Amino acid sequence: MPGQSGRPDPARLPDGADPFDGDVLPAPPHAARTLLASLLRPHRARVAATALLLLLQQAAVQAGPLLVAFAIDQAVPALRGGGGQAPDQGPLIAVGLAYLVCATASGGLQYAFIVAAARVNQRVLLDLRGRIYRHAQALDVDFHDRYTSGRLISRSTTDVASLRELLDEGLQELLAVIVSVVYIVITLLWLDPGLGAAALASFVPLALLVRGFQRRSKRVYRGKSTAMAAVIVKFTETVGGIRAVQAFRRERANDGAFARLNGRHWKMNGDSLLEMARYVVNSRVTANSAVAAIVLWGAYRVADGDLALGVLAAAALYLRRLYEPIDHLGMFLNSYQSAAASLEKIAGLLAQRPSVPEPSAPGGLPPRRERQPGREVVFDAVSFGYRTGGEVLPSFQLTLHAGQTVALVGATGAGKSTLVKLLARFYDPTSGRVLLDGVDLRDLAGPELRRNVVMVTQEAFLFSGTVAENIAIGRPDATREQIEGAAKALGAHEFIAALPEGYDTDVRKRGGRISAGQRQLVAFARALLADPAVLILDEATSSLDIPGEQAVQQAMSTVLRDRTAVVIAHRLSTVEIADRVLVMDHGRLVEDGTPAQLTAGEGRFADLHSAWRESLA
């Protein structure tokens, strides 16, 4: 129901605003951080081991300047001898060996860290892609009607790729910068408190630079991500409607629209590069000035005898290492802002909740007796309205008896499709209940509902794969004999057997390798094999030619037998096979009777029937 959808309350949005119009879906505060934490939580042990490897690697790296200081202040004087002491090569040899050990250990530990971090990152991204895919399937039809497939594709490709860059490169850089800064500052304070304090003080202007860059780049990267999504949406829309594009010569107009979107993305990308260039230049000037000032001050102290030369040399090396990662920090912030904008969008998508949620305590249907002709359907005081408009179906009462074939008739917009979508539970009623053998559909688990209620749409959708795989979608455990039996019962076996590989022929994208009538027969075979108690046919013959319609009509008589059926009909041939006809007008049921009764009357159906007859003549 609308109140259970988990979507933002429209009352909290600006007047006339639609939360689905923008590229970022509203989400709870800190949803992006919560999502990242939930992705990392299952890998806590691996993350801890990776962090330990980084600590050890940085300890090996940062030991170098200390060894240099020891060599200058201790090992070199010992090598010279003097003061009654013989020259001693031992300290210098020990320093050289220690430096070699540290360098070797640093390389090995860095390799181990990169491998361990990469494994964690790939597992996180694998989990995230799976979450997006599963969540997109679980969201209701209303969501997919309003949130474009191009945006969903952008979430699972471009935005996940941004997060991958952060995890693979930026996050490692950040951790290395943080650990090295902590090591260096502590070591400088230990070597000489004055030098350490000066190094800490120099971080104030650098911190201000980082903060300013972060604030500006956040806005730029959010715009860049949105612009990229718009490009993908336009491209997907054009390719998906390529027949209409070429039929109505929309190529030039589409080129112009795409060029504008592409130009906007180019501008946002240029802005991000410009922000990065400003940051790098300003950070390097600040860092180099700080190093020069601190080393000059240290040199005066060495001249005054207040500071050992080796300590100054080590401090100079540490200062270079301290400020060198500032550029890397900018690159991390670059990746972070891009990933943060993407993570915010992914979190907004994952925060959406289906408007037709699974029941907390699902119930079951009474056992279906052998040869039971379908199940009884009751619309009990049902009314419904879409979130984007007013009431579509005013409150009504309707009972469809088990085994009955009911045709829904009415003008476009009369509410026929809405009624069957409520029966299929693509939506929940605003008020009232839809009952199947006395059980509210909202109390049935999804698999139980789909076993009993199956819908064959106007455009029979086939997935890439073989004919046999498409027929078995509703019953994956079916044997080849059962699949072929369903096809034979509907008269589809002959054309399937004539295909290049028979039932193993790949129908390709959307079943484009076979005709519309053949796709509809495959869809009927799928429904027959699934053996639902209730079958919904949404205008199953409207797009077919006469031979195709005749083949499908023959199949319909087979697939509708011994089950409750609701058929949306625009053609007289479809209505004539029904036991009962319901005429709808503006969401209301205005006529109800058998085809013969309504044809003999003087109501809307009689008028429609006369118009059909005249069109056939």
TrEMBL record:
SMART domains, per the entry: AAA
Listed PANTHER family: ATP-BINDING CASSETTE SUB-FAMILY B, ATP-BINDING CASSETTE SUB-FAMILY B MEMBER 6
GO molecular function, one term: ATP binding
SUPFAM superfamilies for this protein: ABC transporter transmembrane region (SSF90123), P-loop containing nucleoside triphosphate hydrolases (SSF52540)
Species of the source: Streptomyces marispadix
Protein name (Swiss-Prot/TrEMBL): ABC transporter ATP-binding protein/permease
Domain of life: Bacteria
Annotated ranges, domain ABC transmembrane type-1: 48-338
